[in-house]
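Ticket closed. Logging final result for Zinc-binding dehydrogenase.
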Amino acid sequence: MRAVSYSEYGDVDVLTVGDLPEPRFGPSEVLVEVRRASVNPVDWKLMAGGLDAMMEVQFPVVPGWDVAGVVRAVGPDTPEFSVGDEVLAYARKDWVHGGTFAELVTVPVRALARKPAELGWDAAAALPLAGQTAYRTLKRLGVGSGDTVLVHAAAGGVGLLGVQIARELGATVIGTASEANHDRLRELGVTPVTYGDGLVERVRELAPDGVDAVADFVGGVREQTLAVLADGGRHASVADPGVTEHGGTWVWVRPDGAELQELADLAARGALQVDVAGRYGLDEVADAFRRSQQGHVRGKLVITVSD
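Final structure:
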């Protein structure tokens, strides 16, 4: 099969595109023909060795944790799925090796959701990790009706989904973003504020008594978060483990097919919009990584593997 891979840690120069053996699948896995994958910052952070102390790695590594595709084969302990089913998944395994930037990938059945017919391939591939990260963070924060929530990096891949999920949960949402993305946030019913110097004052103008919850999807904003929280407010971060020292929650997301199905169904009925910022082929993954590394991507970058 054709795949992107790397055989040592490094920057994009370690990426190669070529043929690799087709992956074997276990009893509780399915083999998926990949239609689309998508880029998450964790993909190039893994490539740089950033999680070497946490996760076992087997080289060569095929990067990518998001996938949307068609089931080609099933293991003997997968009665939920059949050959030909259209699926999506946050396909992270317990070690780093066979990812989704390839023509074929194995996926544990616990991570799979069915792709609704109304959900396009690009959106289906862009949704899993970002969507589940946003959803898990907001649920851990207990966000609900009547809450005022501040979302850091509201125009990023996770943030754009997070502000919509928070609105769906009944919250009033303030989102940090560059001014170029303010109109998009307003379209989603979010009050935008510019990040950087003066953020605390800008948020306090909108919420004089402080916000009920803060979802940090970027890191490096702990001081501002603590300064805008109301008494008894909750905060969580996906990028700053140190928030636990200040009463916050560090969120690490495990694959959950049932949870992903909820998000896919929301997106299929138009209650959750998935923004795609760019499309790349397997030969262009290095370009996609470079763009992701620069930051300021509004939405997700999709990898087209087949039609």
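The CA atoms of residues 175 and 192 lie 5 Å apart. No further action required.
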